[in-house]
Structures are given as C-alpha cells and as structure tokens.
Amino acid sequence: MATGILSNLNEAQCEAVTTAADVVQVLAPPGSGKTKTLTARVAYLLAERRLKPWNIIVCTFTVKAANEMKERITKFVGHECAKQLKLGTFHSVALRYLKQYGQHIGLGKDFGIADSSDSKAIVKRIIKKNDFSGDAGGARGRISTQKAKGIDSEQFWKKAKDVEQQEFARIYQEYEETLKASDLLDYDDLLLRCCLLLRVEPACVSNVEALLIDEYQDTNNIQYDLMGLFAQHRNVITIVGDPDQSIYGFRSAEIKNLTRMKEQWPDTLTINLEENYRSSGAILHAAQHIIEQDESRPPKKLQATHTYGQRPVLRKLPSAAAEADWLVAEIQRIQALSGDLLQPNDFAVLLRSAALSRAIETALGREGVPYRMIGGMRFYDRAEVKLLVDYLRVVDAPGNNEAVERIINVPPRRVGEGTVKGLHEEAQSKGVSLWSLVLDVVQGRCKPTTKVTPSTQTGLAKFVDVILSAQKKLASVTAESAPLVNLLQHLITKLSYQDHLKRKFPDEYEARWTNVEELVAQTIEASDPERLTAIVNDGALPSIEGLERRTESVAEDALSLFLANVTLATAGTEKAEQDGETAQQLTISTIHGAKGLEWPVVFIPACYDGSIPHSRADDNDEERRLLYVGMTRAQALLYLSTPLRNSQREEASMSTFLTQPGVAAFFEEHGPGIAIADVRALAKTLRRDCPSDTAIAESKKTLERDEDNYWPLTGEEPFEERAKWDRSRPGDGTWSFSNTRPAAVFS
Ligand code: ATP
Ligand code: MG
C-alpha cells in the first residue's frame, strides 16, 4: 500500500476508499471528511488498483478545489502520475474532451469560448436589432436556465405559448446562430456539446475506468447526464455530497439527482459518515439546531470528535459600522490572546452577499489587518465604486492627472485615448495639470496643438461641467446638510450613473448598483461628525493635508478625510501584498465561495432579515442551508452578528433563523469564554508550538485591560447537552478543546 493512504481514516471512510462496489454514494454532513475520502480513493485507485491516471475523471466544483485535490494526491502518488489525471471542474473536463474529439460533432479545434460579457453583448445586439423589449441580462440568464434544463431553442419555440415566449425563443435562436457563425461556445455549451459528443461517439470515453465527483448535491441536470455519459462503459462512479449543503438551486442545481442516481443504478452502495472532524461540539450543536428548523429534512446523526469548546457568539451591534469595528477589534483580541499564534489567515469573514464587505474592509484597512477576497473583488477595486471615488478625488484635487485620465471618458463622451494622451503630454510640456489644460481648452483660453474634433470638444465640455458643478455643490453645502452624501448624489445624477451601469453591466446591474448604494451609505457614515472626530482622535489619520489645511468649508474637510480613509482602507492590504505576506491575510468571502473550506475562526456578520434570508431569494430553505454551510466552516470559534441598522441606515432585525424558539441557548451573547488552555489547543490545530509562558502572560495582560469588553458569560448553558457532547469520542489528536470555564482560569 502506498504510504499512508488509509492512515488517518476512520472505518467508514476506509470502506468508501477501498470498496469494490461500482457505484458509491458517500452522503455526509460538513466536515466529515468527504473530500478527504474522495481524494484518498483516487490515490487508492492509482496506487492499489493500478488504474492509469488518464483513465480517471475527477470533477470538483471550483478550480481551487481541483488544485488542492491534485496537491493532496501528488503526496501519495507523485507529481508525474497526478498531473495525468483528468481532474478539474465539469467545465474544464468537458472542454478537454471537446478540444480533443470535437471534430466528431463538427467542431473545429479552434473554437473560442464566449465568456459571460461576450454572451450578454450578443443578446443585447439581437434585442436591439429586432426592436424587442426586455433587458439583455434577463434574456441571457433565461437562455442559460433553458440550457441547464437541456431545452434547446427549437424545443422552446415549439412550446412557446404566447408572444412574449415566442419573442424569447427568437432571441434564443438567433443567439445560437451567432455563436455558431463566430465559432464560439458559451459555458453552458461546453457541457451540452460534451454530452452530444459522448452520445454520438461513445468511444471517446471507452477508456474511462472511474469517475469521482465532489459536492454532488450542487450538480444540475446536464451535469447529471454528463456523469452518466462519462461513465457509460464501466459505470464506476463515486460521488460525495451533502443534501443539507445544497445552495445552488438558484442556478438550477437539482437535489433530486441523489435519488435519481439510485434509481438509475439500483446497486448503488451508500456510505454515511457520521463523525465530524472539523468543528467543536458547540459549533456543530448550534449549526445542527439551525438546519433542523427545516422539518421536511430527514433526521441525521452527527457526532463531534472534538470536545464541546466555546459556544458560538451571537451579537447585536447598533450599526453596520459598529459591527465592523467590533469584529476587527475581536480579531485583534483573539490574535493577541493566542500570543500571535493565530495569524490573520486563521480568520475568515463570510458574507451572504459581496456588497456587505465594504464596512468590514474599511475597518480592516483602518487597523492595517491584511485581507484577501475570494470569489470577488475588494470593494474599492470594483469598477463602479472605483470610478465614483476617482470623481471625488478629482473634485477634491483636480491636479490628480491619473484620476482625470481614468474618468475623462467614462461614461463615454467621445474623448478618445489618443486625444487624452496628446493633451496629457501637452500639459506636461507646459508644466500644468491635465485638468487645467482641459479647462482652458473648453473655456476658449487655449488652442491645443493636439487635434480636438468638435465632438471631442463637446465631450470635454461635459466632463468639465460635471467637475465644476460638483465643486460648486461642495462649496455651497454645510456640515448640517450631510455634505458628502449630497455631493455623491449630485455626481450620480449628473453622470446618469444608474443608466450607465444598466447599459454597461446588464447582467450584473443589480449587484453593481448595490455597491454604489453601499458607497453612498459610507458617505452618510463619514458625514457623521462624531465618527469623524473619533477617527481623527484615534490617530488613524495622522497627516492629512485636508485637516492641516483646515479650510473654512467643513464639506471640503469632510471630503479630504473621506478620501484619505478610502486610501487607508486599501493601503494596508497593498503593502502586505508587496511584502509577500499573502499567507498572512484574513479571508473575506461570500458563503457560496467558502464551500468546502475551513478556518479556525469564522465571523458571519450582517445576519439580518433581508440579508439572510435574502430579500430577493425565493427559497427560504436554501437560505437556511446557506447559513448552515457558513457556520460549519468554523473549527474552533464562530461569531454571528447583526447590526440593528444596516448600512443604508434602515432598521434591521436579527435573521428569522436565529430568533426561533430555543436558538439563543446555543449561543453566547458576549465574547466567547475563551481560556488560555483553549488557545493552546487551538494553536495545536495549526500544528504550531504552544505559546510560550511569556506570550501567555502578555496576552493575559491584554485581556485584563480589556475586561469590560469581554466577560461575562451570560445565559443558561445547555449543560445536559454539553455533557452529552463531552462524552463523545476524543479528537484524533490534531486538536481538542479544554472545557475549562474561563472563571477558573482567571479567578
Ligand atoms: P464539507 O462538506 O464542508 O466539504 P467534507 O466532508 O468534505 O466537508 P473534509 O474537508 O474532507 O470534509 O474534512 C474536514 C476536516 O476534517 C479536514 O481538516 C480533514 O483533514 C479532517 N478529517 C477528515 N477525516 C478525518 C479523519 N478520519 N481523521 C482526522 N481528520 C480528519
Ligand atoms: Mg468537502
């Protein structure tokens, strides 16, 4: 046996790895080692059953998961062998087959792939050409849904019941024709054409000896078909999944695929894994309580292998900004308490939607905590936010040539790149800023040597008008009239920004507009005099020109402060990246993006109704599962929180999932009663040395100073439950929690 494949696996996991059954379903809760088992099975098939790597297909849900899996397999069988596996997302495996055998279904080798913005642009052109109503993004999404259901444009046309459906059928048809004419496939096509290929030419997969799939609960109908087709010659399939973690119903994932599989292959061997190796008993206990609110779900056994540990924290904060400040302070406190054994990369902040990251990013940036975003961009890097911030920068300091260049033709004003470059060089040679040259040109004080056509001249005049009017606005408002909000709103209107975003990002318009609203919310916060003073007094903004300048206008000061704060929010992270400290970054991710991953400490802020469950979600059960997925990413400490007013300053109430009867008993209201011994245990999780006595003494001092913010433990502990969990099997030695009550440690 290749070293270690079966070591560190429990009995049920070993069975799943070594079974001779052809079709195997491993259905098990989060953290029970499904991915670990799947990886071990691949290694086992290679090392023990002597399967050839190129005859094994492994489908994962994300590219990241595929890479991680490959790395783990490499440890068992070596790089040469692992790299020959057909391992990747469904899309990437399908692409590989199409590139190799596409000629059987009339595909050339050089077909291109239409990404989502290409697809949208095509749909938009069709709608315009035919003078149809409806938005391109919506129609594009609908095409994708139909494709996911395996309904092609002909079939849709035949079933179309009314004019609206017929119109859509036409768009769908023309879209398909355009892709064909340009030799393009969209993402859905990769899967569909691969299905077609494998039906027409089954010999392409005659060598496939085993197919393995992770996160099976989130497969859709086409992926199901593809599974059957990949495995059609030998039907050797292993899938792992968890119905409780099905969170892609909104993208046509079919939970029924689990039962469908059993119907298609009645001899399917089902293996249940019941032990959780990831989370403390207390975290599992709380997560379990949430998922059990879904009464239609069959009861399941779940056993903790770690002791009970700290109950998760459920906290209410007055505002989104206060929530972010508390969260960052708590991260710093726990890190200090661990004697810095816990580093930022041991913490994750998981969000229901990406727009929620702004408040957190601002607070992290202010404190210099480095972070990375997975499955999304940092708030201030998002195009729609960056552009408005650039406008504010130019209003504040028009001499900022780079910012002027970035915004001068956005939204489009017929000012070409060549003209801007020419004007920029001309300004430089005259020793003036780009802005003042443009202003002189527009106001007729200067005739540029760079060619400026009449339409460009009009465009430049529009740009100048936007900036001048905004500066006028800024000068005219007072502190009482919330200067920054007024200024930003003025810019948004003047730029017809909402229409611009609708035109430019038809598919993602809503998400992008939500980010703009977030930025507006931030200017509201920044206009709050108390908060401004607090920031300045904190010394977070040491030398801001605007402050020293102390102009007569409160509004101008507020703007400089605001922009300095934005710069600060990004500067900390950029520096960390330059220093090559990427491993030391905290993770911010959507819950969707965190699927399959784990961290010692997890925060889920903004747990309010409208956020989770989301106001636009149709399926509350799916929203609950999403919260469950988020909670079960945590190994040792878990924090859920909600602001009582969201960032739009609307009243928010705690998520309905967290206010059900009995839920409160599973959480702490205040900080966790984490004890030094627990931190030592936590440190073991990371297989680092335990804190030295000096480090412990230091962190204890920090704690004592911080006492107000810390104890007490309130509420009744569910002692009986706790005792039950404590009797569960001890951990496997990778980590465990002591049950020492904090009072005993610090008394
Ligand atoms: P999810 O549903 O969230 O994807 P999963 O079931 O795939 O979870 P894994 O990620 O495979 O779970 O495992 C969770 C953690 O438990 C990992 O850190 C893994 O190394 C550890 N683990 C799994 N099985 C064992 C075991 N038998 N002994 C020790 N640790 C284990
Ligand atoms: Mg997994």
Brief account:
The protein is built from 31 helices and 16 strands. Bound molecules: adenosine-5'-triphosphate and magnesium ion.
Folded structure, characterized:
It is globular and about 85 Å long. Helix 21 packs antiparallel against helix 23. The longest helix is centred in the C-terminal third of the chain and has 25 residues. The strands form four sheets. A six-stranded parallel beta sheet has the order 3-2-6-7-1-8. A six-stranded parallel beta sheet has the order 11-16-15-12-14-13. It is built from 31 helices and 16 strands. Helices cover 50% and strands 10% of the residues. By secondary structure, it is an alpha/beta fold. The structure holds adenosine-5'-triphosphate (ATP) and magnesium ion (MG). The site of magnesium ion has 3 residues, from helix 2. Adenosine-5'-triphosphate (ATP) binds next to helix 2.
What brief labels describe this structure?
50% helix; binds adenosine-5'-triphosphate; binds magnesium ion; six-stranded parallel beta sheet; 747 residues; alpha/beta
Ligands bound here? adenosine-5'-triphosphate, magnesium ion
Oligomer: single chain
- DSSP strand content: 5-15%
User: What integer value in Å does the Rg equal?
Assistant: 29 Å
Strand order of the largest sheet: 3-2-6-7-1-8
Catalytic activity: ATP + H2O = ADP + phosphate + H(+); Couples ATP hydrolysis with the unwinding of duplex DNA by translocating in the 3'-5' direction
Family: Belongs to the helicase family. UvrD subfamily.
GO molecular function: 3'-5' DNA helicase activity; ATP binding; DNA binding; hydrolase activity
GO biological process, one term: recombinational repair
